[in-house]
Write a structure and sequence with these properties.
This protein is of the alpha+beta class. The chain is built from 1 helix and 4 strands, in the order H-E-E-E-E. The protein has a domain of 36 residues. A hairpin with a 6-residue loop joins strand 1 and strand 2.
Length: 59
């Protein structure tokens, strides 16, 4: 039977449990298209980032 040899410290336990507190990703409404997108990411539908055209828009 597997038994831990030493006590797990509070720090190790906390690092392991840190992923339990993750939240759902945040979305913002794009000012021009009104689509939801992640903050600081390219709007893939319009192909814009910070008001500049960086990709060809999807149809």
């Amino acid at each position: 039977m597997a038994v831990p040899k030493r006590k797990v410290t509070r720090m190790k336990r906390g690092h392991r449990r840190s992923a339990d507190a993750l939240n759902n990703p945040t979305y913002v409404e794009d000012k021009e298209s009104g689509e939801l997108r992640r903050p600081h990411h390219i709007d893939l539908k319009a192909g814009t980032y910070r008001g500049r055209q960086v990709l060809e828009p999807r149809d």
